[in-house]
Amino acid sequence: MSSNSAVLFNVAKCIGCGSCTVACKLWNDLEFGENNAHGFDAKLSADSWTVVQYHTIENNAGQNVFRFAKRQCMHCLEPSCASVCFANAITVDENGAVVYSPKKCVGCRYCLIACPFDVPKYEWNKVFPSVMKCQLCADKLAEGETPSCVSVCPTGALIFGDRDELLEKAHAIIATSAATENMEATHYVNEVYGEKQAGGTRWLYISDVPFAELGFPASVPKKSIPGIVHDYTKWKPGVFLGAAAAFSAIGLYTKRRLKIEEEKASENGGENNV
Amino acid sequence: MFDYTLKINKKASFRFTLTRWILLLLAVFGIFILIYRLINGLGATTNLSDEWPWGFWIYMDLILSALGACGFAVAILTHIFHVEKFKPLARRALLMSFFCYVLVFLILFIEIGRWDNFYWFFISGAFTSPLYEVAICITLYIIVQVFELLEVWGDRYKSWVKHITRFFLPFFVLLACIIPFGQEAAYGALYLAMPTKLNVIWYSQFLPWACLITSFSGGLCFVAAEYYVHNRHYKKTSDDAMIRSLLRVAGAFILIYIVLKFVDLSVRGAWTEVFSGSASGNMFLVEFIVGSLVPAVLIFSPMIKKSMYQLIAAGCGILGVLINRFDFVFVGMADYANVSYFPKWTEIWIVIGLTALVVLVYLFAIENLPVNQGKNDEKPDIVSRPPTGIIHLSKSEQNSVSE
Ligand code: SF4
Ligand code: SF4
Ligand code: SF4
């Protein structure tokens, strides 16, 4: 059974409880280290595949409000990390989850540097380290279950489902909020973060505050990174074949010319080229 | 008192001097740290972090590969374009290039975190990854170079090896001239995957091709510089006219680069960033002036007749490549990383040790292989030079000297 899995995160509904971060650690057997997985200074790390970052932001009405951004691997439709992987250790499974397999990883860390959302982290202190990142609970998806973090969310800020349906839903929520005259009601930013970024991602975000203020990278191109790299790679076979053809032709030609010159030289009295 | 000659057999020997003992010491030290790194992991031996997953080692790989381009740049001139006057350089450039790539390979091995999984990438077939392209092309290239070097070795030590390898040589030389197009360009392509991270001055679809072009010029400058240093070391006379022509070729590539980089920056409107006074802008100006404009002016002015200016031009050409790679590996990525990185002493000393080791082997090879002669020893040397120093002469060399 394959599916077009996705998760919609509604920033306006999140209360920052951090349940999802705990659920993730429990399911994936990650350590509860000193670093908080939710809070103002929460950062993704090898132990924290998902964090809830706290932000104090001024909203439309000029009030300072708390907003919380759950961060984890975005599960790009065309993942940069998988396309640049040295050893095909990162692959996309049949549900769309971007999954890492430590058995194949050679540890080049290209995935870390090539992810536009800075998601993969490395176990620097291990002798044989692995790359650490959210797997979209691929093992649960395979069983037809929802991801661990989604299943524990008490407010419904996280919804799991089909990507197309969730996108429709997200746009519907934005449209209704835009239509209401009620100043008390939540007014969403007219963008679904993740719909287009990096060619589209499986984690989608809607928010009533600008995404940039929640720490989401604003400059991520719409074009997928594998697409950008392919703009280079596609020339390569031509370059190789072209060079081979050109070099063979030039080589034969110049060699022949050299021979003729040598013959001429020997006709003109022999060894004057020594 | 440090003089000691290691006799391997009748034909091969290696003389240790004080410098070479020091190199050996560095090599041993480096290898100890290398083993320490393999046992203790990256965290204990490097300053790499999630913010700077790539650092000094990747940089070394980039510049060594760029300089290693000397082999195929000269091979294209001598074996594709059949420019006879460069033939005396062909084997030497091949040897230099070979050792550069061996060093690249060694560094790549310590650089990856899971060296126990090293073999995986050979079978993975990750064709979408520029890094895979780099590694596969380097591997193939080293194999081809080993074959080419077998011919050189057979030339002195085993004539049947020479005959067999010579039969296949044209094919391998052709391969050797094409494969490096893969890794040289792919090094630039590595950074195409960082559109939000690399500074706009360098981030461009032109980057891989810029790396390819500058590797030609850098490689040729490397040959020229090595030629002078080498001749000085072995107290031999230099053929200034030949190096002048060689630098002209390098200069042509530098000119092509200057024009294309100019167009590239203009098309993308990146000049404002260049003159913005930012670290990236300033470093780019340094790179462009020192590494491209200065050598271009020197090479195409009458000054280039003097060997001193040749050496300066070649040095600038090399420096240009070193700064250019430094710029897009470190300077252009620093704003995004937002934390600083400086290699740990272990990172540096492993590289120093491995380099010392490779230099020693290089010296051994160059003193015991017939690299300093015309390619076809049926024909007399094209440039016969007084064979002084401790180079052992092959029969044909001796003949050409007595003529
Ligand atoms: S967010 Fe980063 S790690 Fe996750 S799939 Fe996309 S590129 Fe890969
Ligand atoms: S570190 Fe591992 S998973 Fe990441 S790109 Fe390299 S081989 Fe692939
Ligand atoms: S989907 Fe699974 S692995 Fe990913 S953040 Fe949620 S619980 Fe963690």
Description:
The complex is a heterodimer of chains A (274) and B (403). Chain A is an alpha/beta fold and 274 residues long. Chain A contains eight helices and ten strands. Chain A has helices at residues 19-28, 80-84, 110-114, 138-142, 148-152, 163-179, 225-233, 236-267; strands spanning 5-10, 38-39, 51-58, 64-71, 90-92, 98-100, 121-122, 131-132, 158-162, 203-206. In chain A, strand 5 and strand 6 form a beta hairpin. The radius of gyration of chain A is 27 Å and the shape is elongated. The termini of chain A are far apart. The model of chain A has no long low-confidence stretch (mean pLDDT 91). Chain B contains 16 helices and two strands. Chain B is globular, with a radius of gyration of 22 Å. The longest helix of chain B has 31 residues, at 307-337. Chain B has a two-stranded antiparallel sheet. In chain B, helix 4 (70-80) packs across helix 10. The two termini of chain B are 38 Å apart. The interface between A and B is large, with 56 and 57 residues. The structure holds iron/sulfur cluster (3 copies). One iron/sulfur cluster is lined by residues 85-87, 89-90, 100, 105-111, 131 of chain A.
